């Protein structure tokens, strides 16, 4: 084991330790961080290396300008002008095998970039900022365990095109006012487990993506993913989101989870959306959500295209969302669950089994609420279906806990085939 102080690291939180830590990594094997605060620019893991932090050890984003990776250091790396991501990372593992990060605190120092309130929305104003805090690309054998990862200026932990992944025991804490600060993003990954994590972010706590294009491989599915025994929360986005890209997401299980609001309380539960841009669409199938407790603004949103795609004329996405199970779901919520298809793609074989929800909302509501949070639209029904080929409820119960006169139906359907079995429908359903 290599001690970073033997290679010249100071750990005083002021001196840049980038070069000393990199020398320790390049020496091979596992690198040890004794107690201290180590300020660093980009660090590059090598195959068969790892970072081990003793209690009291913190790695914080800093260092001199020349100590950060070039945004074009690998063809798979991406920047975003719209999201002000400059493509720089604190820890990079590129095409490595057998890499690990264990223990300690990894701090993205988001307040260095983002601290001025946005006058239009209840978040900080976006300015150019560092990209993903942890960036793993096309790696095999990845372990990230028992760490606190906090204050990401962008996504906290991103794995793209990786396989054989173990993520466990993470505490991820993002500022609730920092946009696009996802907790964990798995993109075109296979054979992955995420367990025993507590994630609190403004944006999506966990995102499962199928964006093959940056990898130059249109046939690389995201598959065989398990997420279990976690507490997931977002201040304005989703606890769990599936979608993004042109690929395939399949064979995933999400179980034994608590999904809750963080910060201002506008956080949602589960979103499955096939298309976020007009030239994309992810096919998603064979996915299970079970044993989940929610306290969220909206429990479910399942769509073939998001609002931006609709506004730009690309609503007829030819993607498929099928064979999705929601079992043993309990919780409280405010907004309509939306299941929205189109005339080109397909949403089918959705199964909601043993679902009980307490509704506290106000029924019909616009996209923007009084706090200027977006995505808060609602109808007068607990569930809204449009252009859905097939869905089945078995043992659905909605408890109307507030504004009962404003809620009219358990479900409303338009051009949809929805079956109800053994359900307690106090207000009934309506077909349009």
Taking all Cα atoms into account, the compactness measure Rg is 22 Å
The major pleated sheet works out as: 21 strands, parallel
* Percent of residues in β-strands: over 45%
Q: How does the helix and strand content classify structurally? A: mainly beta
**CATH fold group:** Pectate Lyase C-like
Number of domains: 1
What's the helical proportion of residues?
under 10%
Termini distance?
67 Å
CATH class: Mainly Beta
* Secondary structure tally: strands: 34
What is the molecular shape? elongated
Average pLDDT, to the nearest integer? 94
Q: By CATH's scheme, which homologous superfamily applies?
A: Single-stranded right-handed beta-helix, Pectin lyase-like
Give the number of helices.
Answer: 2
Instruction: Give the name of the CATH architecture.
Output: 3 Solenoid
**Low-confidence runs:** none
Please outline the helices and strands.
Blueprint: E1 2-3, E2 12-16, H1 18-26, E3 29-33, E4 36-40, E5 43-44, E6 49-53, E7 57-61, E8 91-94, E9 97-102, E10 105-107, E11 134-137, E12 140-145, E13 148-150, E14 157-160, E15 163-168, E16 171-173, E17 184-187, E18 190-195, E19 198-201, E20 206-210, E21 222-234, E22 238-245, E23 248-261, E24 268-273, E25 283-295, E26 300-303, H2 307-311, E27 320-333, E28 337-340, E29 346-359, E30 381-386, E31 391-400, E32 409-414, E33 418-421, E34 429-431
Parallel strand pairs: 1-3, 2-4, 3-6, 4-7, 5-8, 6-9, 7-10, 8-11, 9-12, 10-13, 11-14, 12-15, 13-16, 14-17, 15-18, 16-19, 17-20, 18-21, 19-21, 20-22, 21-23, 22-24, 23-25, 24-26, 25-27, 26-28, 27-29, 28-30, 29-31, 30-32, 31-33, 32-34
């Amino acid at each position: 084991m290599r001690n970073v102080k033997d290679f010249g690291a100071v750990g005083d939180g002021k001196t840049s330790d980038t070069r000393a830590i990199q020398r320790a990594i390049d020496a091979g094997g596992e690198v040890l961080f004794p107690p201290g605060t180590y300020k660093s620019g980009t660090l590059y893991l090598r195959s068969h290396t790892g970072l081990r932090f003793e209690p009291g050890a913190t790695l914080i984003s800093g260092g001199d300008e020349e100590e950060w990776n070039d945004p074009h250091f690998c063809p798979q790396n991406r920047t975003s002008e719209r999201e002000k991501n400059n493509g720089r990372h604190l820890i990079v593992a590129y095409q490595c095998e057998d890499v690990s990060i264990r223990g300690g605190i990894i701090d993205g120092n988001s307040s260095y970039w983002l601290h001025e309130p946005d006058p239009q929305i209840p978040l900080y104003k976006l300015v150019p900022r560092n990209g993903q805090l942890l960036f793993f690309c096309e790696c095999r054998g990845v372990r990230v365990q028992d760490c606190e990862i906090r204050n990401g200026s962008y996504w906290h932990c991103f794995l793209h095109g990786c396989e054989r992944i173990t993520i466990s025991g993470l505490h991820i804490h993002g500022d609730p006012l920092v946009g696009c600060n996802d907790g964990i993003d798995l993109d075109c990954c296979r054979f992955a487990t995420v367990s025993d994590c507590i994630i609190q972010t403004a944006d999506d706590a966990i995102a499962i993506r199928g964006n093959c294009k940056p990898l130059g491989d249109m046939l690389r599915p995201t598959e065989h993913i398990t997420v279990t025994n976690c507490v997931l929360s977002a201040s304005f986005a989703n606890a769990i989101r599936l979608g993004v890209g042109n690929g395939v997401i399949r064979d995933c299980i999400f179980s034994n989870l608590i999904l809750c609001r963080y910060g201002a309380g506008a956080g949602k539960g589960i979103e499955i959306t096939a298309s976020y841009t007009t030239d994309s669409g992810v096919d998603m199938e064979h996915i299970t959500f079970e044993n989940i407790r929610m306290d969220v603004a909206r429990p479910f949103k399942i769509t073939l295209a998001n609002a931006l795609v609709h506004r730009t004329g690309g609503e007829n996405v030819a993607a498929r969302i099928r064979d999705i199970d929601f079992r043993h779901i309990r919780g409280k919520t405010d907004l309509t669950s939306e299941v929205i298809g189109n005339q080109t793609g397909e949403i089918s074989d959705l199964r909601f089994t043993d679902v009980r929800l307490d509704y506290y909302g106000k029924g019909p509501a616009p996209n923007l609420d009084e706090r200027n949070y977006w995505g808060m639209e609602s109808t007068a029904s607990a569930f809204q279906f449009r252009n859905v080929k097939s869905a089945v409820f078995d043992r659905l119960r909605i408890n109307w806990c507030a504004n009962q006169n404003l809620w009219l139906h358990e479900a409303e359907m338009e051009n949809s085939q929805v079956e109800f079995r053994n359900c307690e429908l106090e207000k009934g359903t309506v077909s349009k």
